[in-house]
Design brief:
The chain contains two helices and seven strands. The strands form two sheets. The chain has a five-stranded mixed beta sheet, with helices on one face. 35% of the residues lie in helices and 29% in strands. Strand 4 and strand 5 form a beta hairpin. The chain is α+β, with helices and mostly antiparallel strands and 110 residues long.
């Protein structure tokens, strides 16, 4: 039975972390990004930025995988995620980046 107690405690902790991170996002002033930003899985690596052009989500994921040194064998485990809309982008999704585009995505494991 101690296993059930540990599982419940970890579930509650995860819920608190989610709520506190949402509050922190709401309280922090949103920075307006110009173009498309892709924040990578590791904080040591600087995000990718695209200012103009037309790219598929797959092309952007391949660029991000190269930047993070993720092998071609494993890069299909990762995808682009938009926190504001809670949406995962499929590989064939096409991003048309113009002067008015302001998108911030995360490259993370699905």
């Amino acid at each position: 039975m101690p296993t059930l107690w540990v599982m419940e405690l970890s579930r509650q902790l995860c819920g608190k972390m989610r709520r506190s991170s949402k509050r922190a996002q709401l309280s922090s002033s949103p920075t307006s990004t110009q173009g498309l930003e892709i924040h990578l899985y590791t904080p040591e690596v600087h995000q990718l930025e695209y200012f103009k052009g037309c790219y598929t989500a797959l092309e952007l994921c391949v660029d991000a995988a190269k930047k993070c040194s993720i092998s071609p064998l494993c890069h299909n485990l990762f995808a682009l995620y938009d926190e504001t809309t809670s949406m995962w982008y499929p590989p064939n999704y096409e991003f048309k980046i113009t002067d008015e585009t302001s998108v911030k995505l995360h490259y993370r494991m699905r």
